[in-house]
Design a protein that fits this description.
heterotrimer, A mainly alpha, B mainly alpha, C mainly alpha, B: mainly alpha, two-stranded antiparallel ribbon, about 5% strand, globular, C: mainly alpha, elongated
Chain lengths: ~110, ~525, ~675
């Protein structure tokens, strides 16, 4: 089993793709702004997983670039989440709702 | 220092400005209204007369400037050396060196003759009746036209010449369009477009010549002419362009159809200028440009050109015979008379072999003489038609009848002009026509023989007119006509005396251009 | 030889011209002054004519010229000149003498006319121009005066300007003669071209002298014929004779002076003047140009004489008689009898002026009635007129001995008889003699004999001022016969430049008897035919002419002037008028149509380009805009503002791209 469960790149990528798809589905289908943010965070996490996976399975030597990018990405996504939440709150203040269907100011 | 010729060109322009600036006609409306109230059935004719006899500053100023320019023209004549060949009083200033455009004016005998004629006809036209309404603009436009005419007849560089040539066209258009009679819009447009198209063709030809020869100077170009200015198809194209431009202006059959409409519609004074001077620009162009520049081309298609001329001479008076409108009738006769000029020129240019000196000189002298005579005579005829129109309000040939009983003086003096026009010896018309026929008979006998029919038909036309206008029982419409008024006599008598003078002792006119004739005959033959 | 008179010849035309100008500038009421001036000018020119006549008498074959330059054109000069020779001098004398008589007569005849002064002005003008014709030494000067005479004729025919018929006749005269003049003009041009000068005599360098003629060669025939056209027009020869009878619309003195004595004879004079051109290269006195002259003359003479028989207007009869006599003169010139022709011209000038003035006197007496059928029996009422008229009639009929016309006609017949190509003209001329006697007898009987009919009831003799000229002219007619007789052919020799000699034997010639008999026959037949008609009742004015009774068709043919006027009206005039209308039509619709067609093509092009502009380019841009806006509207619908949807679309797109990529790979 262990053998079987030995992580290989395709396995990790499948997990990552699944995670991304779930995040995407969440971002697209949920009506609540917070859930959409969460979906986005999930997609980011999938991207980070990809970075780490490619770094881990790349042929040696292993400079720490992949980890670095993942860390960067996490930092930025944290910041982004903060900004996103702030925006959601700002939009919520304006519209008095978190239902994104009501946000149609971009309609042209 | 402004030269004499430049002064002559500029004075009418200054006059036009002056006319524009000074307050115009001072019509005594009160008097006019009084006259109308006193006599309720005032005919429109009488009323108009009241207006025009009131103080007319505009006309006075215009005449003043005319007198000044005529004085300059006479000074030109006095100081003109009749024995010297070539141009005199030349003024030459660089203008646009890049395209060889110079301000180059000068006169030879022919130019001087035409300058004198212009000085004579324009004031004559100012006296024409019925006087146009709103005279300030009218006189200003006429003065601009005068300036353009002076320029055309003295410019010796194509660019300058063309400038003046076109400058005369626009006043002509305006004069017809604004002061014309029935159908004036159509006639003015036709006049303008037709002549303008001709001018464009001519301009293109000259551009072609310039591109090959690199000069616009008349004298230089004329020197090239002998040996063939251009060669091949280019030469024919250039020839055709210039020919059409000038043939429309003269006009030559079949390019003449703008003329009857324009002359018929234009106010009398303008008709006088159109026939007396503008048509001469065409003839002048033929003498100055086409004949010297394209002798070989003319020779090659000489018979065809002569055939066109003969058509002009024969068909025009025939058409005149069938006219009802007196102005239109005289317009057609003008085509005929200018046809004589063209007959002389083309016979001369198309003479197959070396023609005798006497014939070439006779033809050229005759043409120059005819230019002068036709100018005077046709203008006088139009003047008289104007007098008739003013009295009757109409000018159809059958609107009158038996006038000789009521207005013998008017009929008598008018007959003199008519007889002059049909070439009666003792009056001016005969001298030129005889010389033209003399010269062209020797060089193109068959065409001349046919052209004689034109002389005959002209006689029929005038005989018919005289019969219908003057004789027979006095028509009721004419029974109230005033005879020639004093102001009209002042105009008619000098002109008629001039006709007699030229008819009996024409030497003083010949003196102007004899040297030029000799020189040109040598150049052209 | 006599430079004094020669250098004063210019006065001959100048004095009457000056008189005309002065008279024209007078007010209408100055009648005395006007007629006085005119007559004074005529007396002056008569004096000058006599002075000019004297030197030609002294030297046989006298010829003196005075040439001068009219003007210089280029380097060439145009010479004109005056000539004085027997031909000119005789003409001058005739013109001024007859003219004077007619001027005096006019004072009486025109006494009631409103435009009395203008009449004398025109007459003076005519006289000056006619004298100019006589002395011109250049074909050009000749032509100029010739045209001026034509003008005077035009003015005087149409003198009674309020009558439409007079105006029409004047127009007809001017135009008809101008047809001939155009030929003359061309002939002149040709002559000028051929010989290099138009001066007749110029010390051997003139166009009628040896050198000038030699240059012409064969073209002389054509030149002569073209010049003859002018003579045909002016002298009323067939086929241009139609204007002359109509010209009788003018006052009678005009008919007498212009259309009988002088102007119409100018054509004959012209042929005589340029005779060297006609006879150049003659064999036996015959050239083709002269032959044409003969046959034209014969045709004219006979035709006019025939027409004259059937006319009823006293002046028209005389007019046709003039045409006929002019034809006779032409024949004479054509067969070589120049002197005879000119003699007849001079004699004719006197007796025809006499006849016309006589008819004027009759018309005046009958209160302006001109129909001879309404007259009759005037012999008693107007004795002076009758006597002088009879002299004129006998002269015209050709009764010899005391009447000038007889002798000159005799000379012509004599010359014609010896014409080599054919005897036909001679016989036809003899027939003409009979006809002339016949129609003159007819006229005499109708006017002066028989019963008085309507117009003659209150006839009266004319005043002295009118009868005196008649008497003078009658004396002249008789006197001329003295110098015309073959016994003392002074006139003939004067004209030909030989010295006259007297021989009574020449008087009696066999041919004289032939014509005497013929004249007698003519008169006798006339008396026999018309005696009855003349006797007719005063109420039934001779309605039916005996000739008409006998041959109605022929008479109608002649009375209607052989329908030549109608023929011309239907053919030539109709054709000319049609071509005038056609020219006008062509001009309005064809030539101008072409121009308008070009204009229309331009306009069409304009319409086309406007259309292109409106419908294609402009509309295209418009449509594009509209389409773009529609598309925008469509697309903006997709722009729902739902970010999730956008993302969804992005995701789907992504997926599609991935699939595409996978498929491509």
């Amino acid at each position: 089993m262990y053998r079987i469960m030995t992580p290989t790149l395709p396995l990790v990528l499948i997990v990552s793709a699944a995670l991304f798809s779930i995040g995407l589905l969440a971002a697209l289908s949920r009506r609540h702004a917070i859930f959409i943010l969460i979906g986005i965070e999930m997609m980011l996490a999938a991207a980070n997983l990809n970075f780490i996976a490619f770094w881990r399975f790349a042929p040696p030597p292993h400079p720490s670039t992949g980890v670095m990018i993942a860390i960067f990405s996490i930092a930025i996504s944290a910041a982004e989440a903060a900004v996103g939440l702030a925006m959601v709150i700002a939009v919520y203040r304006h519209y008095r709702t978190t239902n994104v269907d009501e946000y149609d100011q971009l309609k042209g | 220092m402004v030269g004499l010729i430049t002064a002559i060109i500029l004075i009418p322009l200054i006059g036009a400005l002056a006319v524009w600036v000074v307050p115009g006609q001072i019509i005594r409306y009160s008097e006019r209204r009084e006259a109308e109230s006193r006599n309720p059935v005032v005919s429109p004719i009488i009323t108009r007369r009241d207006v025009s006899t009131s103080v007319d500053m505009t006309k006075l100023i215009a005449l003043l400037f005319n007198i000044i320019s005529a004085g300059c023209a006479i000074a030109l004549w006095r100081n003109f050396d009749v024995t010297a060949t070539g141009l005199q009083f030349v003024e030459r200033h660089p203008w646009i060196p890049a395209i060889d455009a110079e301000y180059l004016v000068g006169v030879d005998g022919l130019s001087l003759l035409l300058v004198l004629l212009t000085s004579l006809i324009i004031p004559f036209a100012f006296f024409a009746r019925p006087a146009p309404e709103g005279s300030r603009a009218f006189y200003a436009t006429m003065l601009i036209m005068q300036s353009a005419l002076y320029g055309t007849f003295t410019a010796q560089n194509f660019v300058l010449w063309f400038l003046f040539y076109e400058m005369s066209l626009i006043p002509g258009f305006l004069l017809i369009k604004m002061w014309g009679g029935e159908n004036r819009d159509r006639a003015a447009t036709k006049f303008f477009l037709y002549t303008f198209l001709g001018s464009v063709a001519m301009l293109l030809s000259f551009l072609g010549i310039y591109l090959v020869k690199g000069t616009f100077d008349f004298a230089t170009l004329a020197n090239f002419g002998k040996s063939g200015l251009l060669s091949g198809n280019l030469a024919w194209l250039a020839f055709a362009g210039i020919f059409i431009g000038l043939a429309v202006k003269v006009p030559l059959f079949p390019f003449h159809t703008w003329l009857p409409d324009a002359y018929q519609t234009a106010p009398v004074g303008v008709s006088m200028v159109l026939t007396g001077l503008l048509s001469k620009m065409g003839v002048y162009g033929f003498v100055r440009l086409l004949l010297p520049l394209f002798p070989n081309e003319i020779k090659a298609i000489g018979p065809w050109l002569l055939a066109l001329v003969v058509c002009s001479i024969v068909f025009a008076p025939l058409a005149a015979w069938a006219q009802r409108d007196l102005k239109r009738m005289i317009a057609y006769l003008s085509i005929n008379h200018l046809g004589y000029c063209m007959l002389g020129l083309f016979a001369l240019a198309a003479a197959p072999a070396a023609a005798a000196t006497i014939d070439t000189q006779a033809a050229l002298s005759g043409v120059f003489m005819q230019i002068f005579n036709h100018g005077i005579t046709a203008a006088t005829l139009f003047y008289f038609v104007g007098l008739l129109e003013e009295r009757r309000g109409l000018r159809g040939i059958d609107d009158f009848g038996g006038m000789m009983q009521r207005t013998p003086l008017l009929c008598g003096w008018m007959s003199v002009a008519m007889f002059s026009s049909l070439g009666l010896p003792g009056l001016n018309g005969f001298v030129g026509e005889f010389l033209i026929f003399k010269g062209s008979f020797a060089m193109a006998a068959a065409f001349t023989a046919i052209a004689v029919i034109g002389l005959f038909v002209t006689a029929i036309v005038f005989m018919r007119a005289m019969q219908l206008l003057f004789s027979g029982p006095l028509s009721g419409n004419c029974s109230e006509f005033p005879d020639l008024l004093r102001s009209e006599k002042f105009v008619v008598v000098p002109v008629t005396l001039l006709m007699f003078g030229v008819g009996i002792a024409p030497q003083f006119i010949f003196n102007i251009f004899n040297t030029t004739v000799v020189q040109m005959a040598r150049l052209l033959s | 030889m006599n430079p004094g008179i020669l250098s004063n010849l210019w006065l001959l035309p100048a004095v009457p011209f000056a008189a005309a100008v002065v008279i024209l500038s007078l007010p209408k009421s100055r009648r005395k002054i006007a007629s006085g001036l005119a007559i004074a000018s005529q007396v002056i020119v008569l004096g000058i004519s006599i002075a000019a006549f004297v030197p030609t008498l002294r030297t046989p074959g006298f010829r003196a010229v005075q040439n001068f330059t009219w003007f210089t054109f280029g380097e060439q000069t145009l010479q004109l000149g005056f000539v004085l020779d027997p031909l000119a001098a005789a003409m001058l004398l005739m013109i001024s003498l007859v003219g004077l008589c007619i001027f005096v007569f006019s004072v009486g005849y025109m006494a009631d006319d409103v435009n009395f002064t203008r009449f004398f002005a025109y007459m003076s003008f005519f006289s000056g121009a006619m004298l100019g014709v006589a002395i011109a030494n250049s074909l050009l000067l000749f032509f100029m005066f010739w045209e001026l005479v034509g003008l005077a004729s035009y003015l005087l025919i149409g003198f009674w300007i309020d009558r439409p018929s007079a105006a029409a006749a004047a127009k007809k005269a001017f135009i008809t003669t101008r047809i001939g003049d155009m030929g003359f003009f061309l002939g002149m041009l040709w002559l000028y071209h051929g010989s290099g000068t138009l001066v007749f005599y110029n010390d051997g360098r003139g166009c009628l002298e040896g050198a000038g003629l030699a240059l012409l060669g064969g073209s002389a025939t054509f030149i002569a014929l073209l010049i003859f056209c002018g003579a045909v027009g002016k002298s009323g020869q067939f086929p241009l004779h139609v204007w002359l009878p109509d010209a009788m619309e003018g006052p009678t003195p005009v008919s007498a002076l212009i259309h009988a004595a002088t102007m119409v004879a100018a054509g004959v004079f012209l042929v005589a003047r340029v005779y060297p051109l006609f006879s150049l290269g003659a064999t036996n006195g015959v050239t083709s140009s002269l032959t044409v002259v003969v046959w034209i003359g014969v045709t004219t003479a006979l035709m006019a004489a025939l027409i004259a028989i059937a006319q009823s207007d006293i002046k028209r009869i005389l007019a046709y008689s003039t045409v006929s006599q002019l034809g006779l003169m032409m024949v004479s010139l054509g067969v070589g009898g120049v002197a005879a022709g000119i003699m007849h011209l001079l004699a004719h000038g006197f007796f025809k002026a006499l006849l016309f003035l006589g008819s004027g006197s009759v018309i005046h007496g009958c209160h302006h009635e001109q129909d001879i059928r309404k007259m009759g029996g005037l012999r008693r009422l107007m004795p002076v007129t009758f006597a002088t008229y009879a002299i004129g009639m006998l002269a015209l009929s050709g009764v010899p001995l005391f009447f000038s016309g007889g002798w000159s006609k005799e000379e012509i017949l004599h010359a014609t008889a010896h014409w080599s190509p054919s005897r036909a003209p001679y016989y036809l001329m003899l027939a003409g003699v009979v006809l002339t006697a016949l129609y003159m007898t007819r006229q005499m009987i109708y006017v002066f004999f028989g019963n008085r009919r309507s117009a003659a009831e209150h006839a009266h003799e004319s005043p002295r001022v009118m009868t005196m000229p008649l008497i003078v002219l009658a004396i002249g007619t008789v006197f001329l016969s003295v110098v015309l007789t073959p016994a003392w052919p002074w006139m003939d020799d004067y004209l030909t430049g030989e010295s006259a000699h007297f021989s009574i034997a020449e008087l009696i010639q066999p041919m004289l008897f032939i014509s005497l008999v013929l004249v007698g026959v003519g008169i006798a037949v006339g008396i026999w035919l018309y005696r009855k008609a003349g006797e007719q009742d005063r109420d039934r004015a001779a309605e039916v002419d005996p000739l008409e009774y006998a041959q109605p068709a022929v008479f109608r043919f002649l009375a209607n002037k052989m329908w030549i006027d109608e023929l011309y009206a239907r053919t030539i005039i109709a054709f000319a008028w049609a071509s005038a209308r056609l020219s006008d039509w062509m001009d309005r619709y064809f030539w101008d149509g072409l121009v308008r067609g070009f204009g229309a093509i331009g306009q069409l092009f304009g319409v086309f380009t406007t259309d292109m502009d409106e419908r294609c380019i402009n509309a295209g841009v418009d449509e594009t805009t509209v389409g773009a806006r529609g598309l925008g509207r469509l697309l903006s619908g997709a722009h729902s503002g739902q970010i999730q949807m956008y993302l969804g679309v992005v995701a789907v797109g992504m997926l599609a791209l991935l699939l595409l990529y996978a498929w491509l790979a």
